[in-house]
Amino acid sequence: MIFKRVGDGRPYPEHGLATRDWAALPPRQVRLDQLVTTKDTLQLAALLDEDSTFYGDLFAHVVLWRGDMYLEDGLHRALRAALQQRSVLHARVHAIGEETTIPA
Fold it and tell me: With contact defined as beta carbons under 8 Å apart, do 62 and 71 qualify?
């Protein structure tokens, strides 16, 4: 299993972060098997595109909420990492609520 769970939507409250706000968060490694996706479909062309991050952030965006880590942006990067036999992904993590530590 690649991910902890495949979800469909964002169960956490709106965080209000803009692109500039995400860029201020330092990237860190997160394990793929701890991530819950917020999308249940992907576009194969985007997965296979070598230049898919040209206009976006190089790092995935993860929201930590109620003990779960939700992959808000970066599904294609995460799947590409899994296909390359990697178990971790570099992501920017934003904690909502009282949690501030990433699960081990």
Answer: yes
